[in-house]
Amino acid sequence: MKRLIAALFVIRAFGQDFKIAPDELNKLREAAKPLSAKAAALAGHKLAADVAIFDKAIQMLLKHPDEFYQPQFVKHAHNAIAEGLRRAAELEQGKSSWTKQTGRVARAYTSRIDDSPQPFKVNIPASYDGSKPVRLDVVLHGRNGRLTEAAFVVIDPKAKPYEQDWIEVEVFGRGNNAYRWAGETDVFEALEAVLAQYNIDRERIVLRGFSMGGAGTWHIGLHYPTKWAGMEAGAGFTDTIRYANRPDPTPWERSAMRIYDAVDYAPNIVNVPAAGYGGELDKQLQASLNIQEALEAEQIRANAIFLVGPKTEHKWHPDSKKESEAFLTKNLPRRMPERFRFVTFTPRFGTVWNWRIAALENTYGRAELAGTSDNVTTKNIAELELDAPRAVKIDGQSLNGQAFARQMNRWEVRPAKPAMRKRAGLQGPIDDAFMDRFLCVADSPSATLDTFAANFEKYFRGSVRRTTSKALSKKDVAGSHLILFGTPASNKTIEKVVKQLPVRWTASEIAIKGQTFDAKTHTLALIQPNPLNPSKYVVLNSGHTFTSEDLKGTNALLYPRWGDWAVIETATGRVKAAGFFDEYWK
Fold it and tell me: Which pLDDT tens digits describe the chain residue by residue (586 residues)?
């Protein structure tokens, strides 16, 4: 009985027992029609997303009425319609008052991933007039099971006035995904939008977040350490196996966990002043402890403080918050250390100061780059790039150029047309394809595609673009990763590319990595450079490799399940074999 009462309390606490009345839903549907029409008419305007986001907010609620979690969400919806119409009217008159507004302002951009409008909020101090560059704090929110676009973009008029003398941007992150995959891309697209709209001092950009936002800060701060003048991570998580209770991952899952486990990237903290925090009574204090333990194990000294809020649960202790802010302010602006050190396990994350690790000798093995702007040592690195041509030393060798490759234990200037291999932005695994622009191609109905599209809309707040082989254009091939669904017999594009992939797929069998499977009872999922455009991916029969149950659970579950390829038993959905291609995609 006690458990039942507790469960009912949780449901009511989150407002999940509220159900919007059909007539109220119909009123909203009718009220939204003028906004949809105006948003469509304004498409192409440079500020179109600032209107379209309000239309999207309503359309998502109309499509998912279960997201009216509380009665106040109905009010949010009406307010969103009103604000969208107000902005549309201003744009029609050549005005845009919200772009000059101070306080909290909802803004948006159009994502390159799927052409969807994505929101962010800026907090503009009253002192800001655009005449001089100001500091920017990028703020990552915590997990919120009731987060919707409408709830995010509607600004409470009773909110306290903004008091700080810098700008903040609150990132939506495409919902609750711990800023992974499209959620990670959102952080940088929102940042680009703010840099384009406001006068920001690029040497004073600080990253901060708490809870899920703390996990996101550890992840993005340590994977991209030289983008920030400082980082502040409160609570959150920094590993998968312990936090998500996954003690027995498959070999390919364990390798893929190294993509996002921030603790593996702890040495990168030497490149960015960092404040880690957790309450003394908060289990998520472990996130900060993990980083400290990793630094101690390697005897790394960093410009970092690790704070513990006394007798505090899952929130900031005010004294700790003051100490953290004083530390971050003291360390502005961004500056390169005399000597840097950088660790990565994938070329997806390889930029440190003026260097870029473009390819590894062994992906998911630990790679290291250390030194100065013109003299470095390497470990497990196959290719390096500079931001501009110059004379440098790599592992003691003197070279002059911009891109370099390691051949037979010696470094050389890389050829203009380098060999096909796993390299930055083209290294896999399957899930990597959904961090940038992608297009799904199906010539017949596909339940797998339908499931992926529904999950991507619901949990990544986006729109899956679809076409057929017949309608596929040269522009599509040039500009998008292609996600193909079906078999060589049912999808003309699969039929065209599969002969150039390191697999054999006939009507009777699927052969891959020395294993053979019955094609009548199995299907193949994989990622490869696209034979039609090797600068982009081609993916067969897969969206994200984690499921809707993982998306509903802790955000730490959003790690790849299959690696670069998998053979799936059609009737049961069981994975019969999976793994990675080698460094040359073989």
Answer: 333 333 333 334 344 579 999 999 999 999 999 999 999 999 999 999 999 999 999 999 999 999 999 999 999 999 999 999 999 999 999 999 999 999 999 999 999 999 999 999 999 999 999 999 999 999 999 999 999 999 999 988 777 767 889 999 999 999 999 999 999 999 999 999 999 999 999 999 999 999 999 999 999 999 999 999 999 999 999 999 999 999 999 999 999 999 999 999 999 999 999 999 999 999 999 999 999 999 999 999 999 999 999 999 999 999 999 999 999 999 999 999 999 999 999 999 999 999 999 999 999 999 999 999 999 999 999 999 999 999 999 999 999 999 999 999 999 999 988 989 999 999 999 999 999 999 999 999 999 999 999 999 999 999 999 999 999 999 999 999 999 999 999 999 999 999 999 999 999 999 999 999 999 999 999 999 999 999 999 999 999 999 999 999 889 999 999 999 999 999 999 999 999 999 999 9
Closest listed residue to residue 27, CA positions, set 68, 88, 155, 151: 68
| End-to-end Cα spacing for the chain | 58
List CB contacts of 73: < 8 A, sequence separation 6 or more.
15, 18, 20, 61, 67, 146, 148, 150, 151
| CA geometry: angle 81, 86, 90, nearest 5 deg | 145
d(CA 151, CA 171) in angstroms, rounded, equals: 14
What is the radius of gyration, based on Cα positions, of the chain?
Answer: 25
Q: Per-domain residue ranges for the chain?
A: 95-245+253-330, 351-413, 430-579
At the second CATH level, the architecture of 95-245+253-330 is: 3-Layer(aba) Sandwich (3.40)
Residue 373: phi, psi to the nearest 5? -65, -20
CA distance 367 to 426: 17
How far from 197 is each of 47, 99, 329, CA to CA, in Å?
Answer: 10, 8, 24
Residue with tokens 């606490």: 13
Sequence-distant (≥ 6) Cβ neighbours of residue 461 within 8 angstroms: 60, 116, 118, 149, 172, 174, 175
**Single-letter amino acid code for the residue at 175:** G
pTM greater than 0.90: yes
Give me the residues paired with residue 233 across strands.
Answer: 209, 276
